[in-house]
Specification:
It contains seven helices and twelve strands. It is of the alpha+beta class. Strand 4 and strand 5 form a beta hairpin. Helix 3 runs antiparallel to helix 4, helix 5 crosses helix 6 and helix 6 packs antiparallel against helix 7.
Amino acid sequence: MHPRSIRGQVTALVTLLAMLLLVPTGVVASMVAHQSVTNSTWLEARGEATKVAAAYRLGHLGDPVKPGTPGIDLIQVVAHDGHVIASSEAVRGLPALSTARPSPQDPQEDVQTCAQPRLGCVHISALRVDTTPDSPVVYAGTRAPRQSATGLLDSIFAAQGVVLILLAVAATWRITGRTLRPVEAIRSELAAINVNELGSRVPEPPGDDEIAGLARTINATLARLEHAKDAMERALDQQRQFAADASHELRTPVAGLRAQLEEAQLHPDQTDLKELLDHTLRDVDRLQAIITDLLLLERVRGIAPQPGQKDDLAAIVRAEVAQRPDPDRIRLRLASGVTVYAIHTQMNRVVTNLLDNAERHARQKVLVEVRRNGREAELVVDDDGDGIAPADRERVFERFTRLDSARSRDRGGTGLGLAIARDIVLAHGGTIEANGSPCGGARFVVRLPLAPSSP
């Protein structure tokens, strides 16, 4: 049988250690105290015997002998033949207290004897008065302490040991409980946290001890789990959005393609094969464009940003404009040396999508400008079309956004170009926004961090 809690186990261990330490210490202390009392008695008895022997040699010793040391009241001067020459009142009329006679070579001897029933056991010091063979012997001492007196001393040490053990137990129980209180709070909070609510945190006690470190580690782990859960939910939302967008946008061209083929199947004699093939190929091209853009959009959103290489933004624009069917329609204002860190193919796609959008809605001209603005590179694309209402300037970056008839799918777009451009720019650490253009139409401004070596 042993305590199941850490608090109980620590308290039991401290109790055992306290008993192993304090009990032997108490016994040794009691023995030392007993020995100290006994040694003190012997010293006092020797001192009194020395005084009485000196008084006897000087002839100043009276009868009865008056004790000079408190507590040493058993005093006798015994002749060589054993008769008592003088004694104190406490042993008046009693025979010699002891038969011990120290030798001339060792004139003093400590004796414990119980020969006198009237006195019980006594502690006496025997001292020769002089070195002659027939020298008298002085006995001085006191009664030995009774068992009750020594028992009281033992009881004091025993009570002291018990009190110290109880104090150690109480202090350990309280301190351990206070130390483990934050652990219980952490356990309770963790028990209340479920997988759907990872925003809670366990309490962090002050200080830098192990429990505080444990609480900080748990909170950091919960934060990582919450971040992973949010990332997983975003990925699932993107997958659901992708499925919804794909099914919504692919349904119309697929339905149109099916209708044309079914019509041709029902009336083969009335079907112009060349016209049918032209229509179906246009629908297939549209399907392919939508699928390609959707896959590109998911790929850009689904991967972590990758480091690019230094690229001249003006060179990218100039190369793309050169490949347009009507490059003379596009006016350029390109500052040289505006370099950014970019993945070339993706940044080229941003320029392509913005030019496609501008040319699709411009009446006569498109203006493209590359410039520096502080620590940023700016790519500005203006058109002189109908423009975008302020309330819709954020919506145009959403997938398949259709604002009005002027910007419908009949104009040849998939509705994903601006969404792709925005995600690529964000992946490069930049921003993109739609505004009104001085030309009267829409203006799209892309801002990217300049490469460090740019002026």
